[in-house]
Amino acid sequence: MLIDPGTIAGRFEENLNWANRLDLVTAWATEHDGLRLLEKHAEQELRVRAIVGLWNYITEPEALRRLDRLGKLRLAGGGRRFHPKVYLFRGQGRTCAWIGSANFTAGGFAVNEEAVFETGDTESVISWFKNLWEDCGRLDENAIDTYERARKKNPPPRQSLAEAGGGMTEPMKLLEQVTDWDSYVAALRDCDIWWSNRHTWSVLGESVSWRHTIQVLHDILTRRDLADLDDDDRRRVLGIPGGGWGLLGSMRNNSVNTVFGRNAQGIQQILREVAEADDGAFPDLAFNAYRRMRKFKGVGKGIATRLLSLARPDRFVSVNGGSQEGLALYSGLTPRTLGTEANYRKLLEFIYKQRWFRAPEPDNRLEESIWGMRAALLDCFVYRPPARTP
């Protein structure tokens, strides 16, 4: 059968529920919901073998590390223009294979328009995978680190999208045109094109994007203890590496001690309360959480709103030097006072009243993902990069 583009992730989970083995081949891999599902099922004895391509440096090193931890990994590197996408599920006396266009990425499983054919005729697929597995050879213990260093020197190409009519409406004006949910989604798509054609990041892209940053860091903050994070994850949570991780506000180096030092336990408790709360607890919980965050020494509006937005991206928006002017224009509030408890409350109240925000959860996979981070994604409309020094 041909799998509908909007149900790829759902069908993937259905197959994992009966399979005890998964062999996957993908041109690129990134951190996304499908990877989290694999980790969940690996805890229940799912065995995974993965062959991942490295062409054009789109595959993310951290996704490779996670695949390596949960199963067996081999790489198709060496400059190969490796492009297959094949998934082979086996278990309980049955097999099925996916063959199609969907990479093991956020785009392949939720964003892009993909075509995937599922078949129970797997004999040739099993043979093909066996030959490819042997051809790729065992993973060298330093291969992922070597790839990561090379990727830093040769970052993946930014998304190349043509601008219809020779120009696009700037993000703030796109936001002004938003009324309901459909217009919000349309504005996000146009905003994605706008940023992609001017900078190294996008809104909905595979990596180095608002959506990717929110998705990955939300997972880190809500599934792991702050005390267990390594230095790289701590810096990613605070946006210190810059690039895509700095979207929603890039903090200074000394903020690592502020968040992960003596304040860590208290901050962790607030973030978990926010992440686990029912929708009915808002807006009061939001205001209370922000007030409590600001009481920690060294936690200003930038740190507080970034962490809260990552913990609950459907309910918080990040306020910092790059976003406050745009948020003030949108809400009618004074920019320099947006960080006060009173005005942050007014800002959230304004957002919560908008028709696009109050829309019911959609059943489209991409829009469902957007809906779950709809407040935090306002940042892509209001953000202004710092001016370059001549």
Give the arrangement of secondary structure elements:
Layout: E1 2-3, H1 8-18, E2 21-26, H2 33-42, E3 47-53, H3 61-70, E4 72-76, E5 86-91, E6 94-100, H4 106-111, E7 116-119, H5 123-136, H6 143-153, H7 171-176, H8 181-196, H9 210-223, H10 231-237, H11 255-260, H12 264-276, H13 284-294, H14 301-311, H15 324-331, H16 341-353, H17 365-371, H18 379-382
Parallel strand pairs: 2-3, 3-4
Antiparallel strand pairs: 1-7, 2-5, 5-6, 6-7
In brief, what are we looking at here?
This protein is of the alpha/beta class and 390 residues long. The chain is 46% helix and 9% strand. The protein has helices spanning 8-18, 33-42, 61-70, 106-111, 123-136, 143-153, 171-176, 181-196, 210-223, 231-237, 255-260, 264-276, 284-294, 301-311, 324-331, 341-353, 365-371, 379-382, and strands at residues 2-3, 21-26, 47-53, 72-76, 86-91, 94-100, 116-119.
Task: Please give a structural write-up.
With 390 residues, this protein is α/β, with parallel strands linked by helices. Helices cover 46% and strands 9% of the residues. It has a 7-stranded mixed sheet, sandwiched between helices. Helix 1 packs parallel to helix 2 and helix 2 runs parallel beside helix 3 (61-70). It is globular and about 65 Å long. Residues 160-166 have low confidence and may be disordered.
> Quick one: how many beta strands?
7
Shape: globular
- The ordered string of helix (H) and strand (E) elements is EHEHEHEEEHEHHHHHHHHHHHHHH
Number of helices: 18
Side-by-side strand order of the widest sheet: 1-7-6-5-2-3-4
Radius of gyration: 22 Å
Percent in helix: 40-55%
In whole angstroms, how far apart are the ends? 58 Å
- Low-pLDDT runs of 5+ residues are 160-166
Largest sheet: 7 strands, mixed
The percent range for strand residues is: 5-15%
Return the structural class: alpha/beta
Q: What do the pLDDT scores average to?
A: 90
